Amino acid sequence: MSTALSDRIPPQAAPVRPRAAPERPASLPQPLTSFVGRNREVVAVAALLRSPEIRLVTLTGPGGVGKTRLALQVAEKLAPEFSNGAAFVDLAAVRDPGLVLPAVAAVLGVREVPDRQLIDALVEALRGRSLLLVLDNLEQVAAAGTDLADLVAGSPGLTILATSRVPLHVSVEQEYPVPALTTPAEASGPPASIGDSEAVALFVQRARALRADFALTEANAAAIAEICRRLDGLPLAIELAAARVKILSPAALLARLGHRLDLLTGGTRDAPARLRTMRDAIAWSHDLLELEEQTLFRRLAVFAGGFGLDAAEAVVAASGGLSIDVFEGLASLVEKSLLRPVDGTGDEPRFGMLETVREYALERLAACGEDEAIRAAHAAFFFRLVAAARPGIEGPERLPTIERIDREQDNVRAALTWTMDRGDAETAQGLTAEMARFWVVLGAIGEGRAWLDRAVALDALASPATRAMALYWAADFAVFQDALDRAHALAEEALGLARASGDRLGEALALRQLGVTHQCRGEFDAAWPLMEAARDGVAGLGERVWHGVLLRDLGILATQRGDHDRGRAYHHEALALWRRLDHPWGVPAALRDLADEALTRGDVTTAAAHYRESLERWGHLREKIHLGGCLFGAARVAVMTDQPEQAARLLGATEAFHESLGLILPPTLRAELTRAAAGARDALGEGALGEAWQAGRALSLADAVAEAIRATVVASDPTARASSPSPNLPAADDRHGLTERELEVLRLLVEGRTNVEIAAALFISPRTASTHVANILGKFGVDSRAGAVSQAFRLGLA
To answer: Most C-beta atoms within 10 A of its C-beta, which of 80, 175, 539, 633?
Structure first.
């Protein structure tokens, strides 16, 4: 439970934490306006966070009191004192307490792992790190406090600074109520003394941003002081008031507040306490808008996570009665602090609402009876957007298409939630089916499967074609997580629907999915006729992309059945088709398939060349699932070409990568991974294998791809093992009998590297590294590593 205010600030700040290079760069949002006042609060909160006994501080207070701004100021001040800096998580759009930890994981780059608690993955990722984590807007998910308490308990280097309208009520919490800004003791007095108050300073600064000639004067000082006092020193209310100085003088503004004073300072007794001030402040601002601005304002509340101009123009017109130019209206609302610009792309503007403002606007939307129509228009817009964008994944506009949908994920989630809550099966199933490819590309397998399962579980009827496609994708995502029985049942239902309705594409895809489930079970002969029928079906419909997919499916399946010639023929046919289409992911996918096929025949040189080209092409795309196959292929190449350390690292990277996507490998692939690991273990031994494996798990995706490419280069040209740059090597006469490789080993020896670390750095085995070290000792005439290091310095070789 929270401690008393008098106990909050420790008598002496703890020693500053030592700095170190962050493992992952942490960042804080950059405020667009300067910070006013709050010196006492910044010092007090910083002192609390420096105390070793306090690990979770919650800034509490009403909406608009300035909790977020204070948190950011404190975090900016303290970030250098944490070796991994500070990270910021905005929870304004989160409504489910169970989604708080996933939001934290997303910001920290921690992926959910199937069959493992996310909190365990977070604790493991935070082990050894010193981080200040700022969690903003927790009031609607305060029940997540117990999860946060567990996270703090398991992560000794983690300190949390949270903002919430209510305490979290957990034992580790230190509550810090954020006070309002100071206001003048009296409304009368000279401008200098009145201007010393924080509230007046904020008002003047914000007003001056709108009118460069605005100033605190003898004529307006009393009115400004009274405005700030009547607004209780609440920053958002003051900023809303200051936004009107372009058309109202302070005296006129004060006059407009007269009959709203009671509402602004407390509201009715039966109103929720958290809204007695902020709702009233926003209502006052809302009532200053023109009628059409009010309509625009409340309709914009339907957007989650921001919106673009095109979305606003499409959605707000749904209920009619709006003749205002939308862009001009948006500009007006931005000017009046009811909207704010947010990061967009290129020249396309993007806007968003503060969450407390949006909350009020949603109430107004419901009160006006427009909620149903506007939410339906919102869902329809994003359904159209995703459906129109999906083909772009398959062409030259792939990356901007993916980025556009990625930005709109909060709106898609809001649309899906609303359609599912009202039982709109047609929209829910259609939208999830259209989103499926994006979830694959974005690596959101777990989330995608959850939405698809929820959509197909709706009791209401959708059109057979829509439901069949949703069932197909639900089955596909079930396969991703090795839920093969579930996938088979979904595919069978899809097949029945498609056949009954004459949906030929749906029938072909359902046949494919049934074939995939048999294939993943190792039932290759049962899968074959299903795949052939699916191939014939999509080919007859002229579905070229699906035709390419089925050709590669058949190629893989033929190889699994032992028919290498047929497998290779299908892969070449697929590659030719993808090249004709200039298909972004089809070409590297076919190259990987050809590499896999070559590897099963023992043609390592061909496999290495195809893997390398595939990896180089994938580097320009966002299609992570296929990259995992290339990493695994390169690992097997490394095993077969005497690169066991490289193989172990790549196997570790492959495992971590699949986990990060929420994938569960089917038994056939798990068996292949086990065999590859056994090959590396035979060469390295259990201990060295484990070390290299863990090193691989820690690799970034870019580094893992670079390692995989390096392994394929070495496989094609064994002389590349020793072709790494050796800067500043002494001339042969100055090497004192050491070879170039021994000089490389010596320099790593001087750095204090172990034999295993030397081996990893030079892509050799530990046994080879040990031999090089022994040769160096013999040539130097010393009997210890320390003696070799001393001799290296004496001879000028270090």
So the answer is: 633
Helix (H, G, I), strand (E, B) or coil at 122: helix
DSSP secondary structure letters along 1-22: -PPPGGGSS-SSPPPPPPP---
pTM > 0.85: yes or no: no
How far from the centroid of its chain's Cα atoms is residue 741's Cα?
43
Q: In which region does residue 337 sit, left (phi positive, over 0), alpha (psi from -120 to 50) or beta (all else)?
A: left
Counted residue by residue, the chain has a size of 798
DSSP helix/strand/coil, 132? strand
Q: Which two tokens stand for residue 533?
A: 């029928």
Distance CA 590, CA 576 (A): 9
Sign of CA dihedral 669, 670, 673, 675: negative
Residue 488 has pLDDT above 70, yes or no: yes
Distances (CA, A) of 706 to 595, 641, 717, 763: 18, 17, 16, 13
Burial class (CB in 10 A: 0-12, 13-18, 19+), 697: middle
Please, which residues bridge with residue 341 across strands? 351
**202: its two tokens:** 């904020």
What CA–CA distance (Å, rounded) separates 572 from 594?
8
The SS3 call for residue 134 is strand
Alpha carbons 740 and 748: distance in angstroms, whole number:
13
What pLDDT, on a 0 to 100 scale, did the predictor assign at position 628? 81
Name the band, by pLDDT with cuts 50, 70 and 90, for residue 417.
very high
- Long-range own/partner contacts, residues 219-222 (CB < 8 A, 24 or more apart): 220/249, 220/250, 220/251, 221/189, 221/190, 221/191, 221/194, 221/195, 222/187, 222/188, 222/194
Tokens coding 21: 């290079």
- Closest by CA position to 679, among listed 712, 630, 721, 636: 636
Query: Which tokens belong to 199?
Result: 């509230």
Q: Which residues contact 615 (CB under 8 A, 6 or more apart)?
A: 588, 627, 630, 634, 705, 708, 709, 712
pLDDT surpassing 60 at residue 720: no
Q: Can you tell me the distance from the alpha carbon of 245 to that of 223, in angstroms, rounded to the nearest whole number?
A: 12
Weakest-pLDDT range from 82-86, 234-238, 276-280: 276-280
What amino acid occupies position 320?
G
Under DSSP, the state recorded for 180 is P
How far is 43 from 37, CA to CA, in rounded Å?
Answer: 12
Pick the closest to residue 541 from 574, 508, 498 (CA basis): 508
Written as one letter, the residue type at 640 is M
Mean pLDDT estimate for the chain: 83
Dist CA 773 CA 771 (whole Å): 5
Confidence at residue 778, expressed as pLDDT on a 0 to 100 scale: 82
pLDDT at 387: 95
Residue 739 corresponds to which tokens in the numbers above?
């070879």
- The token duo for 587 is 């070409």
Q: From CA 429, how far away is CA 543, in angstroms rounded?
A: 22
Average pLDDT estimate for 526-535? 96
Residue 101 has a pLDDT of 94
Greater model confidence, 258 or 130: 130
Quote the pLDDT of residue 622. Answer: 67
CA dist 661 and 669 (Å) reads 16
**Closest to 755 in 3D by CA, of 771, 766, 744, 768:** 766
Interval 585-615: pLDDT, tens: 888 889 999 998 888 888 889 999 998 888 8
Instruction: Report the helix count and the strand count for the chain, using DSSP H and E.
Output: 38, 8
Among 10, 139, 162, 149, which Cα is nearest to 72's? 162
Q: CA dihedral defined by 48, 62, 352, 317, rounded to 10 degrees?
A: 170
Mean pLDDT (whole number) for 136-145: 88
The two three-digit tokens of residue 433, written as one number:
């089916």
Alpha helices in 661-739 (DSSP H): 667-684, 686-697, 701-716
Q: Which residue has better confidence, 259 or 531?
A: 531
Lowest-pLDDT choice from 319-328, 378-387, 619-628? 619-628
Of 4, 1, 101, 16, residue with least CA distance to 51: 16
